[in-house]
Structures are given as C-alpha cells and as structure tokens.
Description:
Blueprint: H1 2-11, H2 17-41, H3 45-51, H4 66-76, H5 80-91, H6 97-114, E1 126-127, E2 130-131, H7 137-145
Antiparallel strand pairs: 1-2
Helix pairs in contact: 2-6, 5-6
Amino acid sequence: MATQVQNLSATGGAVTGSVAILLRLEGLVAAGASAVLYARTGASWWLFAGLWLAPDLSMLAYLKRPCLGARYYNVAHTYLLPGVLALLGWLLHAYALLPIALIWVNHIGVDRLLGYGLKYSDGFGFTHLGRLGKREASTSISAAQS
C-alpha cells in the first residue's frame, strides 16, 4: 500500500504503464470511428476543419484562474457533452447536430491519443495522462526507480 501511495505521489495522480497506453488507444479508436462516421454524414470537411479546434476555446478560462480553466477545459474535453448533443440531434430530428458532435468526439480522441488528458487545478500541464512539457529530473528518477 505504501508503494502505491509513493507511486501516486511520484506521478502526480496520473495513470501510468498499460493503463496510460489503453487510454491513448481508446483515444485513437474514438478519433478513427468519429472520422469514419463523419465521412458517412456527407458534411463538409471545411466544417470539420473550421470547428475542430473549437473545444480548445475553453482554455481561455485559464486567463482567469487555473482552477476555473481546468473546470471549463474538462467540461469541453469529456465525451459527455458531444454524446448529449448527438442524442439530442437524433431525438429532435436535428440531424445537423450529428456532424458537430462527431467533430467534437474526434478532437477529444486526438487529444487523448497525444496525451492531453483532463486537467487538474494545479495548472494546464497537470493531466490525468501525465505531466505535459518538460519533466522534472526528480520525477523522472522516481519513476525510473519504481
């Protein structure tokens, strides 16, 4: 148990090993499936290109406070909202919402694949998939010793 606590402390609460690989592969599957489904909708690829970065507008909340930024970013980068959007589009027969939901899912999937996970309130670089940017030497050494 003490080793698990030490490992959790060393990783900053981020998943490691095979769990991290599975989460990244999950992102790959979500990105691939959403791209295939998007192509089948017949929607414009210009729309895809134009809206693909839209979820990243949530990062603007970091200008106010890191805690607020993390909350907004996480809301915009979970599969929950695009899933609700797709469901509403289907239930309300507003099928124009489906391509938007698929673009959103694709963005999240690519982010996960590249290691951009959900954010902790400590700052933008602290994610559930690991620390972004340069790693501190002590963290690298601790992880290597485990």
